[in-house]
Design a protein that fits this description.
The structure holds two protein chains of two kinds.
Chain A: H1 5-9, H2 11-54, H3 63-87, H4 93-110
Helix pairs in contact in A: 2-3, 2-4, 3-4
Chain B: H1 5-34, H2 37-44, H3 58-73, E1 78-81, E2 90-95, E3 100-105, H4 122-130, H5 134-159, H6 164-169, H7 177-191, H8 193-211, H9 247-258, E4 265-268, E5 272-276, E6 289-293, E7 299-303, H10 308-321, H11 327-359, H12 363-392, H13 400-424, H14 428-444, H15 446-453, H16 463-487
Antiparallel strand pairs in B: 1-2, 1-4, 2-3, 4-5, 5-6, 6-7
Helix pairs in contact in B: 1-4, 1-5, 1-11, 1-12, 2-4, 4-5, 5-8, 7-11, 8-10, 11-12, 12-13, 12-14, 12-15, 13-14, 14-16
Classes of the chains: A mainly alpha, B alpha+beta.
InterPro entries (chain B): PepSY-ass_TM
Transmembrane segments (chain B): 12-36, 139-159, 180-201, 331-352, 364-389, 405-424, 436-452, 464-484
Pfam family, one (chain B): PepSY_TM
Chain lengths: 113, 491
């Protein structure tokens, strides 16, 4: 029976195991990042949608002007929220910020002005 | 590996930058060309002499009015673009679903020039904001890409915040290859950051309402939408209006009110004639206008003041569209657009270089490299193919404009198929080299083709032709230089 040196010494086997563990950890980290990014993006788009709905209450007759102003707010707000939501790791403050922004927008839309 | 802020944002920057960048680079390149859309149209319609003045005769206006009336009878909603210093031609235009196209008239006699049918520079303008996919989903995709650009820019700034000043001045083109490409990426990103950030923000803000409309996704929302009146499709009319009144006196009155001596737009509805202020007047895209009755030509109203909120949006639009910009500023926009394209291109190269050793054999890497060739080399080849088609297709060809556009997409599709095939079969280097060779040939031969076509005199108004040909030639030279660098044994 042919025995490889790998099995004989056991050193490369350990190294391969270590590499596999490292690879698995890396894959898990990437999956976690993708999940967080998807969640943050969903929250941010919901917030942006609610902000756009709020523009209907702006005191301008021109509907297009209202949505244009909403667009200006969204173009500034959405990337900042995505970045904060993704970057804020400690105590998940970024995600909390996104949730807070979304809740604030939802409350403002739901409550009568 | 420790999950630091730089590591997380580096990952976000790489992947959002690469995936969105594959399409964003097309938006940057076409936007850069769209800065000179009028000049490209002039190059593509060499039959129109550019030596005319901006003066308009009543005869020419009457001829334009008759053309408008004829087009309305055919169900087409046409408008007038009056001569300006940038484009001294009287044009009767209509929207065909993608571009504003139409006849070019002599501003003195009103006779139509026998121009070739072409989309001209309008093609690049349309491609820039919608990838030629219409409002839905084209403009929506571009707006989403704009948001991705802002996220990538934000993460890039945070990653390089500490080294922002050294990045501004540090460029080592003769250093190790990855270092040189990172330096190029950083220097383009940092030097042109204000421009790229501003254009990304304004472009996204302008069309954000298309991506996220102000209508509830939830049916139970209490606000009912008002019923829409039956409107014709864009560029069409449902009913023809009465015969137009003489336009010359209306134009004189409107110009005096608007303080806009040339380059106005004149729109027609079944009841009204609307004369708009020229976009070239200032950075505010005001759309100030004077309206007259279509029946008898009497003044109905003039709109010359905008509230501050509207003025803000007008400034955002005006600065993004740059229609106000004089030639020097237009060149600055053009160079900044090129820098944005170079930023994305160098980012792609860095992305691939970083992963070549670890993942070079994987199918996804090869696909990524094939797609990179498709955007970085095949797209410019298709653009030059569009210019070649303009000179090579017969002037009287039926549906010539559609043929030009089809040739553009056919050239791009063929090059993409070539790049992907070679890349997936582990011959990506050949793909880069062959396509760079084709780009070099198409670019360097453009001036010769233009000269041999003999479509226009070089003595009068030749500046547009010389500049366009020179830019094509420069593109060819850059591609040739890149090809020679790739062939060096150390490469």
């Amino acid at each position: 029976m042919r025995m490889s040196r790998t099995i004989e010494t056991g050193l490369a086997g350990a190294s391969s195991l270590h590499a596999n563990t490292k690879k698995r950890q890396k894959q898990q980290a990437v999956l976690r990042r993708c999940g967080l990014l998807a969640l943050v993006c969903a929250l941010c788009f919901l917030t942006a949608h609610l902000v756009m709905l709020l523009t209907r209450h702006l005191p301008f007759e021109d509907v297009r002007l209202r949505t244009d102003l909403g667009g200006m707010v969204i173009a500034a707000l959405l990337p900042c929220l995505v970045l904060a939501g993704f970057a804020g790791l400690r105590y998940r403050w970024g995600l909390m910020l996104c949730l807070g922004a979304c809740a604030a927008a939802a409350l403002t839309t739901a409550l009568p002005l | 590996m420790r999950e630091t802020l730089r590591v997380r944002l580096g990952w976000l920057h790489s992947w959002v930058g690469f995936l969105a960048g594959l399409l964003l680079v097309l938006v940057f390149a076409s936007g850069t060309l769209a800065v000179f859309d009028t000049e490209i149209t002039q190059w593509m319609q060499p039959e129109v002499p550019l030596t005319q003045t901006t003066l308009l005769s009543p005869t020419a206006l009457q001829a334009a009015a008759e053309t408008i009336q004829t087009e309305e009878e055919q169900g087409v909603s046409a408008f007038l673009s009056l001569p300006s210093h940038r484009d001294p031609i009287l044009r009767v235009l209509h929207y065909d679903g993608h571009e504003f196209i139409g006849a070019a008239l002599n501003s003195t006699t009103g006779a139509a020039f026998p121009t070739r049918d072409t989309a001209g520079g309008q093609f690049f303008y349309n491609f820039h904001f919608s990838l030629r996919g219409g409002t839905q989903p084209g403009a929506q995709i571009v707006t989403f890409l704009g948001l991705c650009l802002l996220v990538a820019l934000g993460s890039g700034i945070i990653i390089h915040l500490k080294a922002l000043w050294p990045d501004l001045v540090l460029f080592r083109p003769f250093g190790p290859r990855p270092r040189a490409w990172v330096d190029a990426h950083l220097i383009a990103g940092v030097l042109f950051l204000p421009f790229i950030l501003f254009m990304g923000y304004t472009g996204t803000a302008i069309h954000a309402r298309l991506l996220i409309p102000a209508q509830s996704f939830f049916p139970s929302h209490n606000t009912a939408l008002p019923k829409k009146e039956k409107a014709p499709p864009k560029g069409h009319v449902l009913q023809t209006g009465p015969l137009l009144p003489p336009l010359a006196p209306l134009l004189a009155q409107a110009r005096a009110t608007l303080h806009s001596p040339d380059g106005n737009l004149v729109l027609f509805t079944p009841d009204e004639v609307r004369i708009f202020k020229s976009d070239a007047f200032g950075p505010f895209l005001t759309r100030d206008h004077v309206d007259f009755s279509r029946k008898d030509g009497r003044l109905l109203r003039s709109v010359t003041h905008s509230p501050p909120a509207a003025a803000t949006m007008q400034l955002v639009r005006g600065l993004h569209y740059a229609r106000y910009a004089p030639l020097s500023l237009r060149w600055l926009y053009f160079l900044s657009g090129l820098a944005a394209t170079a930023l994305a291109a160098s980012g792609f190269v860095v992305f691939l270089m970083k992963r070549r050793r670890s993942s070079g054999e994987q199918m996804f890497f090869r696909l990524a490299e094939g797609l990179t060739i498709t955007t970085l080399i095949s797209f410019p080849i298709a653009i030059l193919g569009f210019f070649w088609a303009n000179r090579c297709l017969p002037v009287a060809l039926h549906d010539r404009m559609a043929c030009e556009i089809t040739l553009f997409f056919a050239a791009w599709a063929l090059c993409a198929a070539h790049a992907l095939t070679l890349s997936l079969t582990r011959h990506a280097t050949s793909g880069w080299q062959q396509q760079l060779g084709l780009l070099a040939g198409a670019g360097c031969a453009l001036p010769l083709l233009d000269y041999l076509s003999g479509t226009h005199p070089w003595s009068h108004g030749g500046g547009v032709f010389i500049t366009t040909d020179a830019l094509g030639f420069t593109t060819g030279l850059i591609a040739l230089w890149a090809l020679l660098k790739l062939r060096e044994p150390t490469a």
